[in-house]
Amino acid sequence: MTMRYLLLCLALFAVTPLAQAAPRELTLFPDASLIEVEVAAKKGSAEFSFPLPIREGTLRVKPLDSSSTIGRVELFPFRTPDRLQKELDNLTEQKNRLEDRLKALDTREDIFAAAAKSQSSKAPRKTKSNPDPLTSVRQGTDFAIAQLEAVFTARRRTEQELKKVVTRLAALQKTALGGPTLRVSVSPATSRIRIAAILKEGGWTPHYEIRIQGTGNAQVTLAADNRASLPDGYTVSATAAALSAGQPRQTYPFSASGAPRLSTWQLLVEQEQVTAGPLPAFSLTIKNTTTLPLPAGKAALYYAGEYLGTTDFSAVAAGASATLTGPK
């Protein structure tokens, strides 16, 4: 009896992780990001909250079981939690007050700067009511300068406080960005569905590695560069084909620590000038001998294995040429 109980527990522990591990995929295209997730319904309803805003008209919901039926589909807009919204409002008000204080300090500075200039330019005249005009002028000038020093100190402190508020506000605003929540009615009550949508912002930027040896050819490698933060818990991949082109795609694993290399070509170098000294410089013209257009992006140049800097890479049509100069 004890052995049967132990075997049953082991079987349950082995099956449970598989049941909970619903696939979550994010595919980065040059012109978009596609999110795809699988969700299991509970009591006839499946819910999913998108990590980021999605493009209107791109939502798709598909049953994964042939016997399942999708009913009502509802999309609820993202709502910032009350506590977070209150903190955002307070920080925004602090930011506005500090900016108003800086404007007031600018006005005070103009007033006391003019007063100091007026006092220092006065011609001292001895009178009965002012037997020591030099002392009076000096006192007036000292007072105006002391007020200016107070203004400068107040401005420095206000700017430091404003910087902290702006930094905190920017960090909170990132957490306040979220996507809509999807609710789907399904039958049977425990059906599984697949959800897909295009994110409102996303995609990757082309990054090229151009390696030359002075032989008339260049090894050009295209990598997918993504500087935006990726949502946690997703398997992220990149593809060279544009989503708008509708081409069959081959995907490459993507991680925040390293951009995947999508393609490598040997291209013709029509003109090459390289200075690999203390002040590196390069100018080369390469011809796109592939059958595909090369999208615009950034490029890093390597000469005989030595890195010489980066430059802009203009879009190059198939069969066309482009000149790269740098570093920039």
Shape: flat
Let me know the average pLDDT. Answer: 85
Major sheet: arrangement of strands: 15-14-8-9-12-13-16
Beta-strand content bin? 25-35%
The radius of gyration is 33 Å
Low-confidence stretches: 5-20
Strand count, sense and barrel status of the largest sheet are: 7 strands, mixed
Helix content: 25-40%
Instruction: Tell me the distance between the termini.
Output: 75 Å
Topology:
Layout: H1 2-20, E1 24-28, E2 33-40, E3 45-49, E4 60-63, E5 69-76, H2 82-120, H3 133-175, E6 181-187, E7 192-198, E8 205-212, E9 217-225, E10 235-239, E11 251-253, E12 261-275, E13 281-287, E14 297-303, E15 306-313, E16 321-326
Parallel strand pairs: 1-10, 8-14
Antiparallel strand pairs: 1-2, 2-7, 3-6, 4-7, 5-6, 8-9, 9-12, 10-11, 12-13, 13-16, 14-15
Helix pairs in contact: 2-3
Protein name: DUF4140 domain-containing protein
Coiled coil: 81-108
Region (Disordered): 115-137
Any overview of this molecule?
- By secondary structure, the protein is an alpha+beta fold.
- Among the domains are: 82-175; 205-229 and 259-326, no CATH class.
- The protein has helices at 2-20, 82-120, 133-175; strands spanning 24-28, 33-40, 45-49, 60-63, 69-76, 181-187, 192-198, 205-212, 217-225, 235-239, 251-253, 261-275, 281-287, 297-303, 306-313, 321-326.
- The chain contains three helices and 16 strands.
- The strands form three sheets. The protein has a seven-stranded mixed sheet with strand order 15-14-8-9-12-13-16, with no helix packed on it. A six-stranded mixed sheet has the order 4-7-2-1-10-11, with no helix packed on it. Strands 3-6-5 form a three-stranded antiparallel sheet, with no helix packed on it.
- It starts with a helix and ends with a strand.
- The protein is flat.
- Helix 2 packs antiparallel against helix 3 (133-175).
- This is DUF4140 domain-containing protein.
- Residues 1-21 form the signal peptide.
- Keywords: Coiled coil, Signal.
